[in-house]
What we know:
- By secondary structure, the chain is mainly alpha-helical.
- The chain has helices spanning about 1-25, 30-35, 40-45, 55-70.
- It is globular and about 30 Å long.
- The chain has one domain.
Amino acid sequence: MEFDKFSGFLFFLVPPIVQLIMQEYNLSDEKATELFYASALYATLEEEKTKLWHLSAHALFSLFQEEQTTGKITYPEEG
Length: 79
């Protein structure tokens, strides 16, 4: 049951990130979605225990850009 709630949350969180990727990298919806789903960030975001889903779409997009540019992600400290 908990997984269903989390999956639903991702359903609403992913589209704004994909939209930002489309705009920044001038990609189609399909290509931007593929790029995001293939990222290490998305793999980490899928793990509920990481709590990355607490971050805004813009904050997650910044992490995505960092991963694309450097190949690494500097995750924020849990406060």
